[in-house]
């Protein structure tokens, strides 16, 4: 059972847990030949920091996300729905690998899944 007054951010362990999940996520992404090319020349340290901010804010934590709008930062990169889905699958694996329970993983994917409309061209709802 979860306590609805406790944020997902708190339930999964806060900033340190999110940072560990993001680190693992990018290991998985960079090992995926269908995704690694999207990050050629990218400052991964900066990107991971933005991802930690994003997940913290999205999951009820105290960090503010001050990165660009999702559609703007992903525009023109050739991202298709199957790429988004691969990243989501890697996120699920990273969360489960960090010991996040299945119900909470589903909640997190519920927060992230709607972003495909801003990240994948032509899928705006």
Automatic annotation (TrEMBL):
Its cofactor is heme. Heme binds at residue 74. SUPFAM superfamilies: Globin-like. CDD domains: TrHb1_N. Belongs to the truncated hemoglobin family. Group I subfamily. InterPro entries: Globin-like_sf, Globin/Proto, Hemoglobin_trunc, Hemoglobin_trunc_I. GO terms for molecular function: heme binding; metal ion binding; oxygen binding; oxygen carrier activity. Keywords: Heme, Iron, Metal-binding, Oxygen transport, Transport. It comes from the Bacteria. Binds 1 heme group per subunit. This is Group 1 truncated hemoglobin.
């Amino acid at each position: 059972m979860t306590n609805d007054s406790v944020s997902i951010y708190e339930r999964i362990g806060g900033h340190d847990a999110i940072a560990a999940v993001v680190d693992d996520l990018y290991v998985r992404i960079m090992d995926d030949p269908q995704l690694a090319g999207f990050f050629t020349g990218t400052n991964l340290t900066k990107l991971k920091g933005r991802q930690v901010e994003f997940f913290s804010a999205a999951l009820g934590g105290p960090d503010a996300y001050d990165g660009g709008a999702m559609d703007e930062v992903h525009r023109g990169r050739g991202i298709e729905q199957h790429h988004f889905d691969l990243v989501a699958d890697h996120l699920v694996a990273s969360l489960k690998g960090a010991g996040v329970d299945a119900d909470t993983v589903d909640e997190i994917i519920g927060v992230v899944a709607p972003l495909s409309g801003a990240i994948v061209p032509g899928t705006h709802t």
